[in-house]
Amino acid sequence: MTKSIRVFAPATVANIAAGFDVLGMAVHTPGDEVEITLNDSGIITLDLITGDEGKLPRDPEKNIVSAVVKLYLQKRNMSFGASISLHKKMPFGSGLGSSSASAVAGLVAINALMEQPWSRKDLLPLAMEGERLACGSAHADNVAPSLLGGVVLIRSYMPLDVVSLPVPKGVFISLVYPHVNVPTGEARKIIKPQVLLKDAITQWGNVGGIVAGFCLHDLDLIGRSMQDVIIEPIRAILIPHFYNMKQLAIENGAIGFSISGSGPTVFALSKSEAVAHDITQKLSDLLFKNGLKSDTFVSEINPIGAKIL
Ligand code: HSE
User: Fold this and answer.
1) 140-199, pLDDT tens digit by residue?
2) What is the phi-psi region of residue 69: left when phi exceeds 0, alpha when psi lies from -120 to 50, beta otherwise?
3) Taking burial as the number of CB atoms within 10 A of a residue's CB, which of 88, 119, 190, 240 is the most buried?
4) What is the 8-class DSSP label of residue 301?
């Protein structure tokens, strides 16, 4: 038996400013691709990884893609073998949900090879296990939008309750990834476990504002709700020139600006593609003048999520 499939899964902007661990959205580019060929060997092998400069684990027990594919087959009591190729087409350790995109691509591929017995939402807990392996925390705000597409609210973790929000047209996301290393696990450890009630009130008002903004297609409401008074002030210190970039983005037409996931990528939302490109260029120039290289991307919200190629 030889059956093969290749899947693309997109990068994601987790948190969307105020919604730490509960909001995320998918972009069109960048993303990762995984190809799986099913066989009868009963063994899962990781035969090829490209685009990672040799940095990701080759051991199938430690690599996220092979680990979640194995988990999927175990949960379904299936004894197939699988040969996996992972093509990294996005930076990792960047705040763009790189490990999530890989895990999601692997799960969507193996499920498609089994002729789709599970829905995308059924795959979510397994993708979250991949996240636990990657950074020690099974949060869903990257994997859910990469799997489901669009903008996703994780209303509750126990029990898992995931809500897809309407995706307005005409929202453009500028992404700028400064070349500094911010591992997600580390960026989570520096967050304080307690928050002040006054900050919580501001934050949940803003989370409500972002959700309402997507539901009402009110981009200005989304923009003025993109205020994170709890996590951003702590993580901003890990991102060089964060506040200068924020000011520059807002002065140049962004409706909101914050950290993508755990950083160091930052993102801005704007109402026009030209403005979004202009912002990425200006932010990248600012970093360059200060001795830092960066990668930039401009995308609308990806309403589809992972797709079979
Ligand atoms: N919500 C997560 C965080 C996303 O901010 O740590 C990063 O994976």
Assistant:
1) 999 999 999 999 999 999 999 999 999 998 999 999 999 998 888 888 999 999 999 999
2) alpha
3) 88
4) B
Pocket-testing residue among 152, 188, 207, 258, ligand 1, by greatest number of atoms within 8 A of Cβ: 188
For the domain spanning 172-300, the CATH number is: 3.30.70.890
pTM, full prediction: 0.96
H, E, C per residue of 254-284: CCEEEECCCCCCEEEEECCHHHHHHHHHHHH
What mean pLDDT is predicted for residues 259-281? 98
For the chain, residues classed under CATH 3.30.70.890 are 172-300
Say how far apart CA 266 and CA 255 lie, in whole Å: 14
- Protein residues with CB under 6 Å of any ligand 1 atom: 14-15, 20-21, 139, 141-142, 184, 187-188, 261-262
